[in-house]
Design a protein that fits this description.
heterodimer; A: 113 residues; mainly alpha; 3-stranded antiparallel sheet; 50% helix; globular; B: alpha+beta; 6-stranded mixed β-barrel; 54% helix
């Protein structure tokens, strides 16, 4: 099923989970660190997005090795196979878009060779 | 603070967010805030605010996307479920289409009569002015030109315009034709707010006789007679022998009801206008900052001032009202209420039918609903699902209903009522207002017919149903279904009985003895141009010659003429009578008409005493004579015979009363005759006369003969529209006839829908009780016993419905009482006939399923489980 373009926060969440599983707050922290504070997800956006990604089957809950057996522990999420392929698809879409922008010289101070 | 808000917002997340989700969010929020706190107080505040804003947006987004999703889901499920029962869906949609179609068509009629603005720009501010004498109880007297000039000069708070629709003859390139003109003051167009589509309007100086005449063409006449020729401006035409230059063309649809005319021309004031020609309509446009009450006070003061100053006046007060109320009042308003209620009944009957169908369908779906609520759908969710289905059904019916309304409006405007017969219908169309009304009815009917069955279907203990298996909700459905059918029968009978009442009333109006002939005698107006007939002698000679020429036409038995239409609007002038005993002079008002010597015979009126005019005796210059109507003789002299030989005075001329006439109901069948004074047209000729010709059987030949004689006599004078006395009577009954024809259609529609409903309920109940009837048959009940059982049951429903309906019908009849003639709201014949008819029809509708019940094969019905 083709996926319609995803929003920036959702793409960042998928990116944050692309190298390893993380729990909710760790995802927000990773995004903030990676983007040097430019993207800062509020917890409302983060958790509602996580809920939707889970029901759409792009991420799944995974056992956290550190806090096993505790039902009240924070849930850790990992990309599913489908989530990984959607992330790749969406990144390629964005890459194509950027290439078009470059070809049209639409970027500030950017002069291709 | 921000954390408190955050916590509160968390509770607002949709239910699919579990307590664990919320706990994790709360924890993450804590970490975020703690991290920010390390960078200082400002950072903490900022982070807290950002978090609250973010969560608030997220909550809103979650609710919104959730509800959109579930509505789409509801609609999809609804369409699927309606397609599973195509027959029920189609029947419901057709019922609704008829109901909504009828309601929308009638909405358009009522809209024109009650609510729609008149089609001129200044319509919301325009007033209608008429004269009155409140002490004598006279109202609605039209103004004379002299009155108008006085009012125009003295009124401070309002600008006044005057107009009159007059037949005229138009001569162009050697041919003469009869046309209709509006003669009006120069400011008539600006007061209406209408701008000419081409050319210019009238200039104030063009109102005066002796200036070059200016004429404006109506859009329709410009197109039909001049082929929409743009170079028509500046051309000359002869209207009633006077030359006019065409200066402009009016825009399409720019006139008030009954103001349609071919050509508009300005007044030609000579300064010698009389006080007594009460035939002009006056419109008023309040000046800025004034309103109806201020204008009414102003004009009343003007009226009494004129009355004091000029003893010749025949009024003391002025009546001012909104123009819309002047056009559509009285019977139109009552007709609207009755039609509105009736069509609402039709829609409710359609809804009751659909509710019944849905109940039957709902009974079959209890199992489905039980499953749904077992897997977690709340009652509200299930009701919403059912309502969605009803809305889809309603939209289907509404769309089809708009199609029905299109046809209905076409029928009303073009077929049932030809143009011009009923004021306002020419403005009727399926426009945004009618469509909005249709949409409102669609949605509200969905709620009416949908909500009760929906609640009913989901109220039963669904879990018990599920355990029990596929049970039916027979008894519950039966009760509500029967109640709905009783309601339907009640409403249908109310409608039919009201129709019967109105039909009886109109029938009795046709039977009312008008006091003069209402057969196919011809009537038409002949209007002499004052320029070619300046003095009374010329006018007298013309009418005498025309009368004698018409009398010699083959088949013509009688010819007469007088100054007002046979059934016309009342206007009155004062006359004075000296009391024989005390010598005091008393003043009263009466309808003044000049009549020819042949008028009494041509109209078929009776003489109560004395004689009618006689051209050999009542010669010009001789003693002036008058004939009075019965009420005048009664009032002033106490008897018909006593009046003959007495005198009365009108405007300082004394007349000898030579006869007393029974004039009949000259204002229409509903109203008694007003006091009338006839004077001899030979002694007091008038240029405008209404002729009445008893032309025998060959009317077409007579009309052609009359036109030919007139052409020979004076080619510049044309005969206007020729109608018959029968048509005149019919036209005076317009609102009642409209109400009858529409009510009749609605009654038929209500009857059909109700019979479908009766059939449906009886058939359903027979189907449900198949086993019981089988058992009865097996136990020895014969077919006729079962037939009696079923018919008896539907008979009881019919009886209750009929009783309720008759009560409503009496109420509706009371609402109509002022337009009913010769029938009381409780009319045993009308009500009784309707009740018997409905009982028979309902019996017939129950007969088919009852016979099926009687023929049930016990063996098969008992095996079949």
């Amino acid at each position: 099923m083709p996926i319609s373009p995803l929003s920036d926060p959702v793409l960042h969440i998928l990116l944050a989970l692309s190298d390893r599983p993380r729990h909710g707050y760790a995802i927000a922290a990773e995004i903030e660190e990676r983007t040097e504070g430019v993207v800062r997800l509020g917890t409302g956006t983060l958790y509602t997005a996580l809920k939707r990604l889970r029901s759409d089957g792009l991420i799944e809950e995974t056992p956290d090795p550190g806090e096993q057996g505790d039902a009240r522990a924070r849930r850790t999420y990992a990309l599913t196979r489908r989530g990984r392929s959607v992330l790749a698809e969406q990144s390629e879409r964005l890459q194509a878009l950027v290439e078009h922008a470059v070809a049209k010289r639409a970027l500030h101070g950017f002069r291709p060779a | 603070m921000s954390s408190l808000l955050y916590r509160a917002l968390l509770t607002l997340l949709p239910h699919r967010f579990t307590s664990r989700d919320r706990a994790e969010m709360w924890e993450a929020h804590g970490e975020r805030v703690a991290a920010a706190a390390q960078s200082g107080r400002l950072a903490l505040l900022r982070a807290g605010a950002a978090e609250v804003m973010d969560l608030a947006t997220a909550v809103a987004r979650e609710h919104l996307s959730g509800s959109v999703d579930s509505v789409v889901q509801d609609v999809r499920m609804g369409v699927r479920s309606l397609r599973r029962t195509p027959l029920v869906t189609a029947m419901a949609a057709v019922s609704l289409a008829l109901g909504i179609g009828a309601t929308t068509s009638l909405f358009s009629v009522i809209d024109v009569w009650l609510w729609r603005p008149l089609p001129v720009p200044n319509q919301d501010r325009l007033l209608h002015v008429s004269l009155a004498d409140r002490d004598k109880g006279w109202h609605g007297i039209s103004l004379s030109l002299r009155d108008f000039e006085d009012f125009r000069e003295a009124a401070r708070t309002v600008d006044l315009a005057v107009y009159r629709r007059i037949g005229a003859s138009l001569a162009t390139q050697g041919t003469t034709e009869g046309i209709t003109t509006i003669r009006g003051s120069a400011n008539l167009l600006p007061i209406l707010g209408v701008e000419p589509a081409l050319g210019r309007g009238f200039r104030p100086d063009e109102e005066l006789a002796g200036t070059p005449g200016a004429a404006l063409l109506s859009d329709a006449f410009w197109r039909s007679a001049w082929d929409a020729d743009l170079s028509v401006l500046g051309r000359s035409v002869l209207i009633d022998g006077e030359s006019y230059t065409i200066v402009g063309v009016l825009p399409h649809h720019s006139t008030l009801p009954n103001m349609e005319a071919d050509i508009w021309v300005p007044l030609r004031l000579t300064g010698a206008e009389t006080r007594h020609n009460h035939s002009w309509q006056v419109l008023g446009l309040p000046k800025a900052g004034t309103d109806l009450t201020v204008v009414a006070r102003d004009l009343d003061a003007v009226a009494s001032h004129i009355a004091e100053r000029d003893p010749d006046t025949d009024f003391t007060d002025a009546d001012v009202g909104l123009l819309h109320d002047f056009y559509y009042s009285g019977s139109f308003r009552q007709g609207s209420y009755v039609l509105g209620l009736s069509v609402l009944f039709v829609l409710l009957i359609a809804c009751a039918n659909i509710a019944n169908l849905l109940l039957a369908r709902g009974a079959g779906r209890t199992h489905e609903m039980a499953v749904r609520s077992a897997i977690g759908a709340g009652r509200l969710r299930v009701v919403r699902q059912l309502l969605t289905e009803n809305v889809i059904l309603a939209v289907l019916g509404g769309l089809a209903g708009v199609g029905v309304a299109r046809v209905g409006i076409h029928l009303l405007v073009d077929v049932v009522f030809p143009p011009g017969e009923v004021p306002g219908l020419e403005y009727m169309r399926l426009d945004g207002r009618a469509l909005a009304a249709a949409a409102t009815m669609t949605v509200s009917s969905a709620l009416v017919f949908g909500l009760v069955p929906s609640l009913r279907t989901t109220r039963v203990d669904l879990r018990a149903r599920l355990v029990e298996g596929r049970g039916t909700t027979g008894t519950e459905r039966g009760g509500l279904g029967r109640a709905l059918v009783v309601g339907e029968i009640g409403m249908a009978i109310a409608l039919l009985a009201t129709t019967a009442l109105v039909i009886r009333s109109v029938a009795s109006m046709h039977r009312v003895d008008m006091g003069f002939r209402t057969d196919d005698a011809l009537t038409f107006a002949v209007s002499l141009p004052p320029t070619s007939y300046p003095d009374p002698a010329a006018v007298r000679t013309f009418h005498a010659e025309l009368t004698s020429r018409i009398r010699t036409l083959p088949g013509v038995a009688a010819v007469g003429s007088n100054t007002t239409p046979p059934i016309g609007a009342f206007s009155s002038i004062p006359y004075a009578v000296r009391d024989p005993a005390s010598g005091d002079v008393r003043e009263r008002g009466a309808w003044y008409r000049q009549a020819s010597s042949g008028y009494l015979r041509a109209m078929g009126m009776r003489l109560a005493a004395g004689r009618w005019f006689d051209d050999d005796r009542d010669v010009p210059g001789g003693p002036r004579v008058a004939v009075v109507s019965h009420p005048v003789a009664q009032w002033d002299w106490g008897g018909d015979a006593d009046a003959v030989g007495r005198t009365l005075t009108i405007a300082e001329t004394t007349y000898e009363i030579v006869g007393v006439a029974e004039v009949g109901r000259m204002l229409g069948p509903q109203r008694p005759s007003p006091p009338v004074i006839f004077v001899s047209a030979t002694q007091a000729p008038s240029g405008s006369m209404y002729y009445v010709v008893d032309a025998g059987s060959d009317r077409a030949a007579a009309v052609a003969g009359i036109r030919a004689q007139l052409r020979q006599l004076d080619p510049l004078v044309a005969v206007g529209e020729v109608s018959t006395l029968r048509q005149e009577l019919r036209e005076s009954l317009e609102p009642e006839v409209v109400v009858i024809e529409i009510l009749g259609t609605l009654g038929a529609l209500a009857l059909v829908l109700t019979l479908v409903g009766v059939y449906g309920v009886v058939a359903h109940s027979v189907g449900r009780r198949t086993r019981e009837f089988g058992l009865r048959a097996a136990l020895g009940a014969d077919a006729s016993a079962i037939l009696r059982l079923v018919l008896g049951r539907s008979g009881r429903l019919t009886a209750i419905g009929v009783t309720a309906g008759l009560l409503i019908a009496v109420g509706l009849g009371k609402l109509l009482s002022s337009v009913l003639v010769g029938v009381r709201p409780f009319d045993a014949l009308a009500l009784g006939a309707t009740a018997v008819f409905m009982a028979l029809a309902a019996g017939a509708a129950s007969w088919l399923p009852a016979r099926r019940a009687a023929r049930i094969d016990p063996a098969r019905s008992l095996q079949d489980r």
